[in-house]
């Protein structure tokens, strides 16, 4: 009798389990946070991989990178959440620069950014499978990074960090406001194409006013101080271009300009904020942000680099550092100040 009751119990239990299985609907897979995962949510949860190659770290290039990442963040791509950044600094070494580009080319990236001409050239040569953008490149045509600014072909586009008018406007400012300046000393690494191009523009502009450009060449940052010292007595003013080697060692030029009361002109805002007197330019953060917006178009909206024309800065303004002027023995006139369009932002007290 006990065995019969046990058998009946087992049969009834099996039936209940079967009925429960037939009547239960499959629960959707739960995503993080308890919400149901859908195909759209799965797509939104994609983690984007972006590799960055930067020739060296200094304020302008760092600000470019920061602006780039800020544009991605504003578009919902946040590092550590749905964005993985592989940042590489070549430390100004061309061997490192090539090795970094080769490493990036062998990886699976959704996008690659080259910051500064040498880094952009290397990644363009090596990376063929991923979209490539460049920033802080003076002349992408001369550097053979692209062959057409309006219709870049292949997998490459980006933004140039110079408008040829910037150099000529700065030299016009020098000629108009510093009648005693007859020679301008330029510390330059002629191995950087961007520096050579800008130096030629400066030389052409100055020559129209009978002002001579005197060059002091360097091959690495450690030589910048000695090169600047060699210009003392030969030049009435100092000038630097968007020269990564020189900008990395610019503190020594600022110190010398202050000690010897020599006007110091730069081609980038960050150096003016640091201690040079004047430039015609823009914020590199904004430049990087602009390239970041291009990256968003590629990553989130399916655009291809070939669809995006290469841009150049179009909002140039004279930027003055009044504290630097005092340190360099410069009397800032109302005429100088009136040449600044946005006085609130571009006259640095």
UniProtKB/TrEMBL annotation:
Stored InterPro entries = ABC_transpt-TYRBP-like, Peripla_BP_I
Task: Name a Pfam family for this protein.
Answer: ABC_sub_bind
Q: Which residues form the signal peptide?
A: 1-20
- Record's CDD domains? PBP1_ABC_unchar_transporter
Looking at the UniProt entry, the stretches that span the membrane are none
Sorted alphabetically, the keyword list is: Signal
Q: What is this protein called?
A: ABC transporter substrate-binding protein
